[in-house]
Every structure is written in C-alpha cells, then in structure tokens.
Amino acid sequence: MSTPSIGYLYAAILLAAGFVFVIIATSLANLLAPHDRTKEKLQTYESGETPIGSARVQYPLGFYIFALLFVAFDVDIVFIIAWAIIFKQLSLFGFFEIFFFIVVLVLGLVYAWRKGVTRWI
Amino acid sequence: MLLADDAVTQLIHGIISWQFLQFVVTFLVIFVFVLTGAVILVLAERKIMAWMQDRLGPIYTGPWGLLQTVADMIKLLLKEDIRVADSDKLLFLLSPSVFIAPVIAAFAVLPFSPYISLPGTGLATGIVYYVAMSSIDVVAVVMAGYSSNNKYSLIGGLRAAAQMISYELPLVLALVGVVMLTSVLAGAPGYPGHDSIGTISLRQIIDFQGVWHKTGNPVLDFIFEGNTPWEWFILIQPLMLVIYYICGLAETNRAPFDLPEAESELVAGYVTEYSGVRWAMFYLGEYGNMTIVSAIATILFLGGWSGPGVAYLTGLNVPVWGLVGNLLALVYFIVKVYLLCAVFIWVRATLPRLRSDQLMRFAWLILIPITLGNILLTGALFLLISGLGLPTWVFLTVTGVINWAALFGFIWVVGRATVATTRRAQAPAIRARLRASTTPALPLRDGIPARVPELP
Predict the structure, then answer these.
(1) Which of A83, B266, B430, B439 has CA 20 to 30 A from B451's CA?
(2) What is the value of pTM for the model shown?
(3) pLDDT reported for residue B244
(4) For residue B124, which residues of chain A lie inside 8 Å, CB to CB?
C-alpha cells in the first residue's frame, strides 16, 4: 500500500467528513433550536433600516481584473515550484529560463500598475 | 475496469491494515484539533486581548472564565437558524460546508508527529495541496455574500474574494524559497532525499531541519537528535516567514486585514445574515484556518514537531518509548502552533485596520515583487557561490545575512509606504485646511460673523 494515490483517498475522506460534520451540527441545532419565524425576523438586516430593493443589483465589479492577474500569476507559481524542486540540478540554464519568465511577468505587473489597476478605489 | 478493480483491492487492503489504524488516529487528532482549537483560541483571544487592554475579560463562567466558549457553543446550538427571505436557498445552506470542509481537508497534509500523519510519506504534494485547499474558501465566501440578498454581505464577499486571491500569490511565493533550500541541501551527508532533488512534502521538510550526526553521547543525542534549532529555515529566510505570516493574516481575514468584516462599514460582511450554528461554522473555519497558517509556518520555518527527545525515543524501536516520543512531538507541535496563534491575537490587539487603498497595493506592489526578488536572489547567490567552488554553508550564511538585513529593509519600506499613502489620502483635507487658514478671520459683530463668508 505504498502507492501515493491512497493519500488522496484519505484526504477525500476528510473532505467528506467536513461536509458530514456540518450536516450533523445543523440537524442537531434543528432539533434543539426554536422555530418561530416572523416577517421581521426574516427581513434582510441593514442596521435597522427597511431594505430598499434587492441586493442583486448591477455592482461595479472593479475586482475582476485582480482575478485575471491572479490566474496569470497562479499558473506562473506552479511553474516556479516545479523549477524550485530541481533548481540545483537545472543550474544556470534553469535559472535563466525562470529569470526571463519572471521578468516577463513583472513587466505585465508593471503595465497593470501604470494602468491603475492596483488602485482599488 | 482494471483500474477500478485495482482501486477496490487497494481499498480493501487499506481498510484492514496498520496504515488504516494510523489514518484513524490521525483523523481523530485532526477533528479534536479543529474543534478544541476554535474553543481554545476564542477564549485565548478574549483573555489575551483583555490582558493587553487592561481589562479582565470573561471571568464568570467556570473558574477564571475558562468555560466561556463552551457556554457560547451551547448557546449557538440553541439559537434559531434563520434563513433570510429571498435568499438563494441552495447557496445559502451550502456555503458553511464549502467553507469548513476544505479547512478540515487541509489538515490532512500536516504531520502532527512522526506517527500521527497520513500513512506512507503523507501527501507528497504538501505545499501545493495546502494552497489548493485554502483557496477553495474564496468560493464559499462569494457564495455566502451573494446568496444572503444583503448589500453589505455582497460587498463584503467581493472584498474578501479580491483580498484573498491577491494575498494568496505572495503566500505561495514566500514558500518557494524554502523549497529551493531543500533542493540545495538534498543529498548532502545526513540530509534526506536524492541528490539535488528538493521536496514540497511537509514531512520531509521537517527532516531537512533536524539533521544531527550521532555522537554516541546519550545526553547530547537525546536533546539534539532531530532537534537542531540552528538548522531551522527561519534563520536563513526570516523575511519570507514574516511575509508568509502577513499573507496568512490576510487570507484568514483577520485584523489588520479584516476589511471584509469591517463592522463599522459592513456590519459583519458576508456573515451578516448567518445566525446560530451556521455562523458558528464560519467561525470554526476561520479559527481552523488560523491554526493551519500557524502550523504550516511552524513546519516550514520552525522545525515542526522537533524538540528534545522526539527522534531519540521514536528511534529506539520500543513501542512504549515510541508512544512517549510521539506524544512529546504532539506537545511540541501544539505549543509552537499556539504560540504563533498568539502572535495573530497580539497583532489584532496592536495594529489598526488597513485602509482599502493600501490593501491591494501592499500585496501587488510590495509583497509580490519582494517575494519574486527573493527567489531570484536565492538562485543567483547559490549559482555564484557554487560557481566559485565554495561549500554550501557559505551560501546558507550569506543568504541568511542578506535576508535578515532585508527584513529590516522591509520594515522600513512598509513604514515609508504607510506614511506616503496616508499623506496622499489626506492631501485634500490638508489643502482645505491651508486654504481656510489663509483667509483672514471674519470681523465679528455682537459675537457672530458680520457677513456670510464667500466660498473658496
């Protein structure tokens, strides 16, 4: 049983156990807690004000550019980790490869910065 | 078909074996750790914060208020579970599970002691697996924010998502330096692994920090076998530990990065509409996350479970001493983890919340360039020093010295950046005050201004 895949089976069991744990906890609370729903209780909480309209309105989502940048960098990180593991073996060749890789990415980051992407508000 | 058969036989062999017993032990330890971790940390947070703010904190429930969080848990179980009107039912009910399940799954990667970890070598993909699991939380946060049909929740959820994905990048990049060090050290005398092939398995990274050549002196062997604080990676990469920790604060949405839950502007962010046990699930997840961040920092930088006696006792191959050694390892590990968690609380009591304009720039313009620079610097230094034919310890020393110097440079840069952004943010107000002070004071008639001033 030294196959590496068995470790992920155990991890999957833990993931499932997390879901089961929430189900158990909420059903236990269902048994113990009172059920007394009134109109006011089910209202959206906006610090005591009566909410006007739905919250599902069009919202200026300036954050999506972060998501795009994030995807680019996240893929890059997977490459960097793969390189870091055998970085001593790849020696000078690998170092220059990753150097230009990072430089290109940083150029992208600088472009995004000059375009004002990092300015949240 | 063959594959499925293979998996089934694997499963059956897996169920009736010592390894399965090991898994059961690990499973129980993880669950006890997650559940008691939240209880202990909530109490510790209230007590430590109270102590730092010269208050008493909870004192009435149990001796010295020790049972306060137990009482809180019972109270939360007895609270009505309200599902707000017009909420998206499926997402609303699902998001606490999606939040907490990856947290518990991420614990799978942690080695708690030489025996208490997943069977075999643990998960070989250690660091990558941890990052993958911890990033699922973003989905749960957006789900909770969107489904609540509450404007504050929506804004809080989106803020949290933007913040968590931005700080995840420097978080991983800060750990790459350690992986590079394992690559440099692997295969050296006494070190595990094949020649110059590093590792991302947390189990093996602990071994890399505890290399001790047996001297034959039982006292020295007992203390130092597997416990060599001078080999801990914090000495070589302290700046990366600090940056990892900062990103951990941001990932778990804790102060000073608690903008998604900023109570003065957003009520409680994405958990506003949650009550009772579902709310408790979110907090359990948050404290679980906090424990994981501390545990990963402990393993990668502070030697993990290592402490006097662990490797010696487990190396004796006597079951009783093995058990004692494992319990000792668990104790050392838990002590280190909770000390780091105490730093979380300390930071919360000390620092004010960041402004939203500082938040994103700190991640993208300060942390990511520094971590990328560290990777390139470590690589260049090693190639230079090994190219000159000098031994590995010279490389480790030089890297350590530069990194410690960079730590103070980092603190200076952060200080400058804070001052600069604050000035920029306050500039309109300062200009307005200057304009106001240059206009001459109005003549008074009977104690009130003689005429209404013209607007500047």
Answers:
(1) B430
(2) 0.85
(3) 92
(4) 4, 7
Cα B232 to Cα A14, B215, B222, B301, distances in angstroms? 30, 20, 18, 6
How many CB atoms lie under 10 A from the CB of residue B246?
23
Output DSSP code: residue B367.
I
Query: Hey, where are the domains in chain A?
Result: 3-115
User: Residues of A numbered 24-43 whose beta carbons fall under 8 angstroms of chain B's beta carbons: which are they?
Assistant: 25-26, 28-30, 32-37, 41-43
**What six digits make up the tokens of B451?**
């005429």
Give the one of A11, A54, A85 whose C-beta lies nearest to B179's C-beta: A85
Instruction: Return the CATH number of the domain spanning residue range A3-115.
Output: 1.20.58
Contacts of A13 in chain B (CB under 8 A): 23, 27
Backbone phi, psi, residue A43, to 5° = -70, 150
* Torsional sign, CA A34, A38, A42, A45: negative
Q: Where are the alpha helices (DSSP H) in A1-121?
A: 5-32, 64-85, 87-114
Decide: helix, strand or coil at residue B55.
Answer: coil
Decide: B247 and B168 in contact? Cβ < 8 Å: yes
Q: Give the percent of chain B with pLDDT over 70.
A: 91
In degrees and rounded to multiples of 5, residue B370 shows phi and psi of -65, -45
pLDDT-derived band at B1, boundaries 50, 70, 90: very low
Please answer whether residues B64 and A21 qualify as being in contact, where contact means their C-beta atoms are separated by less than 8 angstroms.
no
pLDDT (0 to 100) of residue B455: 59
Query: How big is the A-B interface in CB pairs under 8 Å?
Result: 250
Are the CB atoms for B444 and B450 separated by under 8 Å?
yes
- φ, ψ of residue B328 to 5 degrees: the values are -60, -45
Chain A residues with beta carbon closer than 8 angstroms to that of B152: 46
User: What is the mean pLDDT of the segment spanning B209-217?
Assistant: 78
